[in-house]
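It would be a great kindness if you could assist me with a short task in structural biology. Thank you for your consideration; the sequence and its tokens are set out here.
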Amino acid sequence: MSAPAPARTVLVTGAAKRLGREIALALAKDGWQVAVHYRDSLEEATKTVADCAQLAGRSAAFRANLTNETAVRNLLPKVIQQFGRVDAVVNSASTFEHDTVASFSFAAMDKHLRSNTGAAIILAQALHAHVLGRDGSASAQARRPLGVVVNLLDQKLWNQNPDFLSYTLSKAALEAATTMLAMGLSPQLRVVGVAPGLTLTSHLLSQKKFEALHQLSPLGRSSTAADVAATVKFAIDNQSITGTTLLVDGGQHLMKFERDFSLL
């Protein structure tokens, strides 16, 4: 009899709450052991870990400030030490702070690029080194991917407006990095982008306003958290997808919005 396949482990950044939590729970429900990354939300991360463990049997929380390169480089090794292996990384954490052409600064751009772009690239680099060291020879023979990175992007990249300039620049850089990483880290890794539309409300929107904006799409609805989580799962499972982005937004990227949703 062949040995049972090892349990699959995924690192989800920003998994303590909101969309990251929904992605973590969806993957745990599918049997993935989930490494829950958080920065400051310890209480919420602890709850996500407990909920994921109930679904998949094992989960753990890992704290890291994604603007700190040393912290990012130490993150995946800590997950590997805890679980023994990592098979996927979902880069869901995101800095989202308002600036415009008028208020733009190097400091704002640097903060967004570090957390939204640089951290995702370093984690992809680390996962590639891990799977290459773990079973690189098998990969060279079989020419099949052994790991996957999913980068959360934004339909805003295909429907640009000047609001949240540094955030948008960082996501545009991550979209370009998704293509380059898919080329540079193959065949061991696949790298896929997932771009939601307006998905969850925030302190910037009332529930009534959110519901009205959510309907502004060719399909009459934008993405739900369940839609996005299901697409992340699809990107992870489908062995033929790499170097591209799946837009999950009800078609909002086909429309033109002069301002960001939060400012409409």
User: Anything to note?
Assistant: The CA atoms of residues 33 and 153 lie 24 Å apart.
